Amino acid sequence: MEQHINKAKVLIEAIPYIQSFRGKTVVVKYGGSAMVDSKIKEMMMQDIALFKLIGVNIVLVHGGGPFINKMLDRMSIEPKFIEGLRVTDSDTMEVVEMVLSGKINKEIVNDIQKLGLKATGISGKDGMTLRAEKLMKNGLDLGYVGSIVDVDTGLIDSLLDSGQIPVVAPVGRDSEGNTYNINADYAAVSIAAALKAQKLVFVTDVRGVMEDVENPDSLISLMSVAQAKDKIEEGIISGGMIPKVECCIDAVESGVETVHIIDGRVEHSMLLEIFTQDGIGTMFK
Amino acid sequence: MEQHINKAKVLIEAIPYIQSFRGKTVVVKYGGSAMVDSKIKEMMMQDIALFKLIGVNIVLVHGGGPFINKMLDRMSIEPKFIEGLRVTDSDTMEVVEMVLSGKINKEIVNDIQKLGLKATGISGKDGMTLRAEKLMKNGLDLGYVGSIVDVDTGLIDSLLDSGQIPVVAPVGRDSEGNTYNINADYAAVSIAAALKAQKLVFVTDVRGVMEDVENPDSLISLMSVAQAKDKIEEGIISGGMIPKVECCIDAVESGVETVHIIDGRVEHSMLLEIFTQDGIGTMFK
Amino acid sequence: MEQHINKAKVLIEAIPYIQSFRGKTVVVKYGGSAMVDSKIKEMMMQDIALFKLIGVNIVLVHGGGPFINKMLDRMSIEPKFIEGLRVTDSDTMEVVEMVLSGKINKEIVNDIQKLGLKATGISGKDGMTLRAEKLMKNGLDLGYVGSIVDVDTGLIDSLLDSGQIPVVAPVGRDSEGNTYNINADYAAVSIAAALKAQKLVFVTDVRGVMEDVENPDSLISLMSVAQAKDKIEEGIISGGMIPKVECCIDAVESGVETVHIIDGRVEHSMLLEIFTQDGIGTMFK
Amino acid sequence: MEQHINKAKVLIEAIPYIQSFRGKTVVVKYGGSAMVDSKIKEMMMQDIALFKLIGVNIVLVHGGGPFINKMLDRMSIEPKFIEGLRVTDSDTMEVVEMVLSGKINKEIVNDIQKLGLKATGISGKDGMTLRAEKLMKNGLDLGYVGSIVDVDTGLIDSLLDSGQIPVVAPVGRDSEGNTYNINADYAAVSIAAALKAQKLVFVTDVRGVMEDVENPDSLISLMSVAQAKDKIEEGIISGGMIPKVECCIDAVESGVETVHIIDGRVEHSMLLEIFTQDGIGTMFK
Amino acid sequence: MEQHINKAKVLIEAIPYIQSFRGKTVVVKYGGSAMVDSKIKEMMMQDIALFKLIGVNIVLVHGGGPFINKMLDRMSIEPKFIEGLRVTDSDTMEVVEMVLSGKINKEIVNDIQKLGLKATGISGKDGMTLRAEKLMKNGLDLGYVGSIVDVDTGLIDSLLDSGQIPVVAPVGRDSEGNTYNINADYAAVSIAAALKAQKLVFVTDVRGVMEDVENPDSLISLMSVAQAKDKIEEGIISGGMIPKVECCIDAVESGVETVHIIDGRVEHSMLLEIFTQDGIGTMFK
Amino acid sequence: MEQHINKAKVLIEAIPYIQSFRGKTVVVKYGGSAMVDSKIKEMMMQDIALFKLIGVNIVLVHGGGPFINKMLDRMSIEPKFIEGLRVTDSDTMEVVEMVLSGKINKEIVNDIQKLGLKATGISGKDGMTLRAEKLMKNGLDLGYVGSIVDVDTGLIDSLLDSGQIPVVAPVGRDSEGNTYNINADYAAVSIAAALKAQKLVFVTDVRGVMEDVENPDSLISLMSVAQAKDKIEEGIISGGMIPKVECCIDAVESGVETVHIIDGRVEHSMLLEIFTQDGIGTMFK
């Protein structure tokens, strides 16, 4: 009985958090270890289910993780390069799309639905959700890699209205019908901005932004956009963390209230970030 | 962190319960110790808030507890009797109504609203919710004691639709506008039946129905209506427990799916009854 | 037949008035003799019923009249004073609330419902309708006397939408859940302003504003806010009439189109004021 | 003042009538003297306006009165006959339609709108409201005289929904697009039945059904369908009254709750019939 | 089969046109030969039916064509003149209204309904759609000739919402209930502007605006408002074409996107103008 | 001009067909040559676009055609057999799903969207649309081949409501989350039945049911279910045609009004079947 009462108290503690998130929109960029480790994956899905059940409008955007390269290997598609940059030719794009929209996307849908909630997997091509154009980098044509020109939220809105959890594969189309692979982080930012989301959560394989990467106690829980820019300037944020943090800055500047980098390797990381005072990762606002 | 993760797991365990109660209607007859002990009262309100937040249409029906007699004493209104039965004359009825609709009802509203949710206190007279008639007992006129003839759920429905928690004082009116005091247990049964509620919960000062009142291990967790009738016949259910159990039988026979007797003295008794496998009281179905 | 035809003509004369009030919102501050004399009270309720039936969104705000003091006496609660000002301590507040929300409020509901229309009695605590704070007068703490900080019209709107006549007791709460007694005139002004009402009617025990209180023919039928301010300045409006007229000025300045002071002692005073060319009281605009 | 109060009392007396008719549908067959005498006409329009304003869904069906023959004369169209029965050839039908749909219909609309309410004049051809077929009498082809096969209430319903008073000219069409003149009494019965109207009122030039036509005191205020049939059988109802009463019987048997024959020559006859205990004409039920 | 496939290809070619007009509002001023020649009339109705079926909100405004004079003749009403200008006295107005609202209007309704679609014929008096005032020309009172003061689109909107094709006779009323004959071209412009129509089409007896009236190859397919004004100035647009083009200019300046003058004598002229690249008449924008 | 007018006439001929299909639901099983030949494919998409634009609720169900085997080959997945029947092991299923949901499904979506209409590609797993179970054939476990237990049309309905064309890959899930390959014809039948579709169209590589397969003039345009059963019995329908016809029978018996087998190799075959008197294939009813 004692134990049951303690559990009840945990639920009661959640009341203020539930109250503040009901009816809000949260976009989750789901990727990294949290997509691979099946135990962690299940917990992530549970967190998502719980948010949905307490009335959060939750939208998932996923990447392709290691699956795409595995499939390209298996189909003996040789990677091509121009001046050192990888090129996505049409053969590669076909495989990328099949893996993203036909495998990973539907697996996530399935994992959510195992918990009894309804999910619908779409790609950015469906309902003309993501309008893209070829991304030129230093004047080089890298093939079917695209950047987002416009987000049409009509389909996502109607899925949310009918109680579904939309799961979005980062694939877009241009007005002539060409298909593009889109960076999942950028897709998440664009979608969150278009939906006027309250929160955007990046599920990653790092703990968040560290003052000193060597010092595990130096996690920065909360950062303003100005601080984030300073820390990039100062070199405290560096390497692969820079584009991630730039996405966070971009999202906040596009009107998303708070953006979070969390460690997908931690059990129930989503819940802990959002339902505890300090969270477990870094929050940008 | 460990502790936080454990708390997250408790929330996750709640998912199937939340799923099965979203959109359902639960009527709670609130009375006894749970109305008096301020710590227990707060927990009861927390349970109610949680149910509301996860999408349960919750309706409270309350009694008058010890407050009515205290007020009658204070105002020196002498109790009257006919052949041993107490009579509610118009002076008494005036006080009863003031205490029920003006004091207890508004206190409960206030207690819920302290948690940030909106509640509206009504009496059965408002919106012609409870149509009553004079209750005759053995041919004796006991004054303004009424039984329910009809429930108009229009007002309660519109309060639920606009996100309020309706709190109902057990006072009714007849078609000529006379005011009647109504037994709160009966009022709760009638309202639950009229709302086609999934659950009706009686918050009481006993643990539930016991096979042997002397033996604390003999609690009966689940009973059918047939079993309940048998146990009354056999004398296992006796004394003050009989009318309570008869209310439970009545509610189930009127279409309420499950009816619960729980011990309001236990912390978070509502939550424990509904969110655990066996519950903590007696469930009738 | 002749007589019937004349009656028909009276109904027909009402057409332009009905046309101009359908769909409009009228707030009535109901108090004074019109609450005590049972014949006058019945006529007032008839007027209100008629307005409701022809499509006016009518909202009643009532005071406590002589009932509160009678009850305080009967319960031997001694009035307390600070520097000559009466203090509402918690014992007093408890009685005030019981009388307002549990007695007068429900009586008015009952009186309206006798005419076959549905009414719902709420206090300003219900649905967090009236958010109040402690009113400090000359730096003195007068106890649980409050002023209105904010009106949440959600509950009143949903009652109007579902065809109910809302009857409001002037009791509010602060964000910590303390209960306050609120001047009914002020409550009516705040509610009318928040509802963007077309009309606010004060039912009083005077005929209206008189040019000369001694001269019964000197009633002023129509006044602008500027004129009202001048007449206070000039001393023509004086004594107990000043706060009443200040309420009218306040309401007009808050956006209420017209504000009326009428004499509740006159039969069908509401109807006469609103359905005749000149009215019977004083109209401010 | 006295006089004003008396007027107020008349309005108050109307409360129960207003309550019982709000939201109900009343079809009025408007014809006879009430269409010609301009003072009587104005009063009829006032009655209709009042019913609309208190929430009655009112629908007018009108006939052509003396205007049609006047116009046929003026245009020198010779009446044709087959075996003594008048034939409506296409030339005649053209004039009939112009007068009904283009003159009388729009005049009634105008008369109602003078009172500030919106009306829309349609013929039974509009929105395919009245589907007709050629009426054969004793095997004779009388030209464009039709009987109603089906009523499509879609257009009338949408006019009522948008607050208009529909005014219907008794002209129908068959499925090939031929236009037919339809007896206005029959059209009113069909429309009332299709709308599931509560009341159908025939405005006529007689007082109602008399026990003895010579005796002005012998008006029958209320008749059952069975009684009506008996009185036709017995010859008490005779001559031109028979088809009128048969329409009443037909309407009641088609589900209209009450059908009334009233004397359009009496001022405010509609109001008197519906808003007084006994009415002024004959009611069938 | 070959032939069927070719027909299918024609339908497919229509796709982009259908896409661009779905949900748009098109007002058609229908008059001239297209109202008289029965074969041409049928094709015009087919065009209108097709537009309705593919989701265009189509509204017809018609004139009186030769029918009015014919009827005035037949009824021996002598035309009256003041200083050479024709006067519409009340006798004339009565006939004008009967012909417009009772004959032509209902014939068009009938013609559309023969194709299986629902139409409703109204005059500008119905639902107070066209509020007019007496039109004074050079200080002369020409009787019941009116200009439009205000358009209330409520009735037309509700007819469109319920799937009807509104057919409007150009008759208006002033606030005292006087009836006025209104120039149908002006009525169409006012209605198109009030409805914020995308297109206004004038069905006429000319091919459009010609650079040189003698040269059949000189049709101007597209004109800006500025160009139109220049061409009037330069005398290229002259005679009876001037008021027509001024209507087009007026409509474009009132917010109608494109205005068309088409030749109603050409088969399916509406369809050809709107569903071909260059159209067949003159488009103003 | 002549040519344009002829085209207009073709559109006009379509009016009765458009009228009879607006608001109806048509399910198309899309497969065979019509999926491979790019010119034919484009025409099929045009037909679908046209149906959508004229107000048909169109739903596509597609198969995998030759693409699946090509991909299995390319990935060197060896086909497995049990007693001569092919087994779908989990490796195969993974590829099947990727090709169906990630390649073909999204290509169809893209092809439709090139015409400017919005489409959304889902698999039967999304929104729990197709609940399946393992299909046992003669007691043999063929792996992840499933039959449909239940169709939840919620997602398809909400896509239709928001103007999307749903494109469904025939993949289902059981309640434990296992994924199954489902015969596309069966999926189409189940979906059409669940949607209460008016029409189900099978796009195939045959002309329809032939009385004599050798005689190209012996196509049967219309068959009752009884006739179809007879012709199977008699051996006139034989071989691969039997399961196809059984699907048609099944659909009609499940409430689909008409079921069509059409030849996808014919240009605009959908349009020809539905918009011509006799159609081009075989219709079952």
UniProtKB/TrEMBL annotation, chains A, B, C, D, E, F:
Its main location: cytoplasm. One of its GO terms (molecular function) is acetylglutamate kinase activity. The gene is argB. Keywords: Amino-acid biosynthesis, Arginine biosynthesis, ATP-binding, Cytoplasm, Kinase, Membrane, Nucleotide-binding, Transferase, Transmembrane, Transmembrane helix. Catalyzes the ATP-dependent phosphorylation of N-acetyl-L-glutamate. It is found in: Cytoplasm. CDD domains: AAK_NAGK-C. Its EC number is 2.7.2.8. It comes from Andreesenia angusta. This is Acetylglutamate kinase. Belongs to the acetylglutamate kinase family. ArgB subfamily. Substrate binds at residues 64-65, 86, 181. The lineage of its organism: Bacteria, Bacillati, Bacillota, Tissierellia, Tissierellales. It catalyses: N-acetyl-L-glutamate + ATP = N-acetyl-L-glutamyl 5-phosphate + ADP. The keyword DNA repair does not apply. The chain crosses the membrane at residues 49-68.
